[in-house]
């Protein structure tokens, strides 16, 4: 038998349960405020957006601390701005924000990029100035958690970074990890390396073809898959 | 009550007439209003499930645009934006209306309207929300894991978030297929079936038995009276 009465009861009960839940969902105020602040900044209302962002960051909201750190990091970098950027990124990274952890690591590693061999030697030996060793460790930690841009960054650093950090085997290892996660840049690099015999690999056209296939064949077996809706 | 085979024929004819009408109504007239009505519900549900990304829904022509606070690696001050093809989900309404209108029976108009409203609100609307959630989760997973899956390629930019585990990623892929292929078609049928159980029992399920019973010799058919009589009794009961 059709149970219209019980269905009607359900139709009344559902909103009674859902509405409070949905209202609670609407209470994720910091995230919504952050979105509004970023929209304002994007639309050129920089002052209002910045103030809102500052309030959120001061209230301890990690994504806002990260964005504020990045705002300070961008544009003309002065020592004062850099210090502020470091401070906000450190706060956000301490609260586990992935972006902040990544950019903090890059910030820590920047003396290696700028300072060349001496700084890199220190980083490789573990007594690096400017937290370079910590930066490397943080990047490796992110890579271990599966964050592919960290794989790529490490691979490139070990492939073409300052001399003491260069390590073809490590570079190959990180490229492989990124490639296995479907990263196109890493796959392309592996194809090239197998073709040219780079990264400590012997020339192997078959392997190159196999990796190339990962770029050109989609899961349904059609060749040359492009982007789709 | 007509015999089951005649009822089935009426239902088939009804489908031929009602389904195009329901589809046309949905496509040309009601779709934008449905989209507006469903928008806050879908938005709140997405916010409830992913509070960390500050999601906001915005109607953009044929899409619901989902704005997020998910930062982009290459431009960390910008955030990822998604598109949800709401028309693919809301077709479930039209299918349900077509089925409900095509169902034969001496039901008063008010009762039919009540079934249309009840099925749409308590059955199809939650289904549409579920489809939007499953589809959004898949888009999010493809973007976060930044790897192609099914026919979908990730955009060129990366986002700053830790990836899903492989088994979660594949499970979310199944959810996407459910949202795009199975729920929009089978969902309305299930809701219609739940609201029209007497018709189903009397006509569709017992139809073949009833036909067999009528075609059997008298002695044999005596052993099968219950099915046919029950079917017609139930059908009369509607």
From TrEMBL, chain A:
Signal peptide, first to last residue: 1-25
Ion transport found in the keyword field: no
Coiled-coil spans in chain: none
A Pfam family hit: Sel1
Sorted UniProt keywords: Signal
Protein name, entry field: Sel1 repeat family protein
From TrEMBL, chain B:
Transmembrane segments: 12-36, 86-104, 116-138, 177-195
Keywords: Membrane, Transmembrane, Transmembrane helix
Superkingdom of the organism of origin: Bacteria
Matches recorded under InterPro entries: XrtH_assoc (IPR049823)
Name recorded for this polypeptide: Uncharacterized protein
Originating species: Thiohalocapsa marina
Lineage: Bacteria, Pseudomonadati, Pseudomonadota, Gammaproteobacteria, Chromatiales
């Amino acid at each position: 038998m059709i149970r219209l009465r019980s269905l009607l009861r359900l139709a009344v009960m559902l909103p009674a349960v859902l509405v409070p839940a949905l209202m609670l969902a609407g209470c994720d105020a910091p995230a919504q405020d952050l979105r509004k602040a970023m929209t304002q900044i994007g639309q050129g209302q920089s002052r209002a957006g910045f103030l809102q962002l500052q309030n959120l960051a001061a209230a301890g909201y990690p994504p806002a601390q990260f964005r504020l750190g990045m705002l300070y990091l961008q544009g003309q970098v002065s020592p004062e701005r850099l210090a502020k950027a470091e401070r906000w990124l450190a706060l956000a990274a301490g609260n586990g924000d992935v972006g902040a952890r990544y950019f903090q690591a890059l910030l820590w590693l920047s003396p290696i990029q700028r300072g060349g061999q001496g700084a890199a030697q220190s980083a490789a030996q573990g007594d690096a100035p400017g937290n370079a060793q910590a930066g490397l460790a943080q990047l490796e930690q992110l890579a271990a958690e599966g964050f592919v841009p960290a794989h790529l960054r490490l691979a490139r650093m070990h492939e073409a970074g300052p001399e003491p950090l260069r390590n073809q085997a490590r570079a190959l290892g990180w490229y492989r990890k990124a490639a296995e996660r479907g990263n196109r840049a890493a796959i392309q690099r592996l194809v090239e390396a197998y073709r040219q015999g780079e990264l400590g690999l012997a020339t192997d056209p078959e392997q190159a073809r196999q990796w190339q296939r990962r770029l050109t064949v989609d899961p349904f077996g059609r060749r040359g898959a492009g982007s789709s809706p | 009550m007509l015999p089951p085979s005649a009822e089935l024929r009426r239902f088939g004819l009804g489908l031929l007439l009602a389904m195009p009408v329901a589809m046309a109504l949905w496509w040309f007239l009601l779709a934008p209003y449905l989209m507006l009505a469903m928008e806050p519900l879908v938005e709140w549900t997405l916010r409830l499930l992913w509070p960390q990304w500050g999601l906001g829904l915005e109607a953009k022509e044929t899409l619901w645009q989902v704005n997020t606070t998910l930062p982009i690696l290459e431009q960390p001050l910008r955030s990822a934006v998604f598109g949800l093809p709401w028309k693919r989900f809301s077709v479930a309404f039209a299918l349900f209306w077509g089925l409900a209108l095509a169902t034969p029976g001496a039901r008063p108009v008010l009762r039919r309207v009540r079934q249309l409203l009840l099925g749409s609100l308590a059955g199809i609307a939650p289904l549409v929300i579920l489809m939007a959630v499953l589809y959004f989760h898949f888009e999010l997973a493809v973007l976060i894991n930044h790897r192609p899956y099914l026919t979908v390629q990730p955009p060129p930019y990366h986002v700053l978030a830790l990836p899903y585990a492989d088994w979660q990623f594949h499970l979310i892929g199944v959810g996407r297929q459910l949202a795009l292929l199975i729920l929009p078609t089978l969902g309305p049928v299930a809701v219609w079936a739940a609201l029209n159980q007497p018709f189903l029992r009397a006509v569709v399920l017992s139809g073949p038995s009833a036909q067999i019973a009528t075609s059997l010799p008298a002695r044999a058919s005596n052993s099968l009276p219950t099915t046919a009589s029950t079917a017609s009794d139930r059908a009369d009961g509607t």
